[in-house]
Amino acid sequence: MHHIISDGVSVNILMKDLSRLYEGNEPDPLSVQYKDYAVWQQSDIQKRNIKSQEAYWLDQFRDDIPVLDIPADYERPAVRDYEGESFEFVIPEHLKQGLSQMEENTGATLYMILLAAYTILLSKYSGQEDIVVGTPSAGRNHLDVESVVGMFVNTLVIRNQPAGRKTFDAYLNEVKENMLNAYKNQDYPLEELIQHLHLSKDPSRNPLFDTMFVLQNLDHAELTLDSLQLKPYQFHHPVAKFDLTLSIQADQDNYQGLFEYSKKLFKKSRIEALSNDYLHILSAILEQPSILIEHIGLSGSYEEQENMLDSIQLNF
C-alpha cells in the first residue's frame, strides 16, 4: 500500500479488521472517517494552528542551514539517483538493557537516546557539529483517529549540535528539549517549511536534509485465525529515498537496526562500518553517560577493512 493513502498504523488496523471479519464479527464502528480528518485539516481553526507553529520552525532554520557531508565511496551524481540497498544489524541484548536503564535514569525516551547517538555518529564522520536529520511523526494526535486507516504521518526536521566539548548527558538533555518542542509543533507540513525557507535547488540532494532516522515500535502482530495464519512478508526493496536512513525496529524480543543507503554513494563495507561505529557509540555512552562527545571514539573497522583490501591487492 502506497504512503499516499496509508501509514504503518493502518496496516495493523487492517489486519485486526480482517481477523474480526474472518471470524464472523464486525469491526468496531468509527466515529470519524479519514474524509472528516481531511476536512478538519482545511478548517480555519487548523489553519490558524498551523500558522502559529510556523514561527517555531522558521526560527529553527534562521541561520545558514548545514549540508551534511559524510565521506562517500563514489562521487555524488549530478542528479539524485534512487538506487539503493539495505544492511541489517542487531543491537545486542546488553545494550538493549542499558538503553532501558538510561531511559529510566534520564527521563529521555528510547527514541531520543538513539537519535542523539545517531547525530554523534554523523558528526564523527562529517566533522560537523550542526546536524539536520529528518524523522517521521505519527500525526495521530486525537483519540478519534487512532483506528482510522489513512496517511497521518508528517516529517519533522530536527536540528541538533553535538559539539565535542559537551558531555553526552548534557547533549541528551538538549535533544530531549528539541524533540519536545518539535512534537508541540508537529502539525506544520514539511512542504510549507521548505517553501518558506527559499532553499537553493541542488538536483544532487534532497531539500533541507539527506538523512532520516526512524524508530519503529509498532507491534506487527502475527494473527492466527483458526487454520489461517498471517504474518509480515519481508521483501527486498532496492530503493533509497535519501543518502542514508537508519531505522530501528524495537520490540520486546530485540532491537533490529537497518541502514538504507544509496548505492551510488556508498559501498556495503562502509555501511557495515557505520553500523559497527553506531554500536560502539551506544556502548560508550551507556558505559559513561557523562563522557565528553569529543572523547567518544569510533571502532575503526572501515579503515582496517580497506587497509586489508589494499594489502591484498598489493600482494597480487
Fold blueprint:
Elements: H1 8-22, H2 34-41, H3 44-60, E1 84-91, H4 93-106, H5 110-126, E2 131-137, E3 154-160, H6 168-184, H7 190-197, E4 211-216, E5 223-225, E6 228-230, E7 244-250, E8 255-262, H8 268-287, H9 301-315
Parallel strand pairs: 4-7
Antiparallel strand pairs: 1-8, 2-3, 5-6, 7-8
Helix pairs in contact: 4-8, 5-6, 5-8
Give a structural overview.
- The chain is an alpha+beta fold and 316 residues long.
- The chain has one domain (8-315): Chloramphenicol Acetyltransferase (2-Layer Sandwich), CATH 3.30.559.30.
- The protein contains nine helices and eight strands.
- It has helices at residues 8-22, 34-41, 44-60, 93-106, 110-126, 168-184, 190-197, 268-287, 301-315, and strands at 84-91, 131-137, 154-160, 211-216, 223-225, 228-230, 244-250, 255-262.
- The strands form three sheets. Strands 1-8-7-4 form a four-stranded mixed β-sheet. It has a two-stranded antiparallel ribbon with strand order 2-3.
- A hairpin with a 4-residue loop joins strand 7 and strand 8.
- Helix 4 crosses helix 8 (268-287), helix 5 (110-126) crosses helix 6 (168-184) and helix 5 crosses helix 8 (268-287).
- The longest helix has 20 residues, at 268-287.
- The radius of gyration is 21 Å and the shape is globular.
- It starts with 7 loop residues before the first helix and ends with a helix.
- 22% of the residues are buried.
- The model has no long low-confidence stretch (mean pLDDT 90).
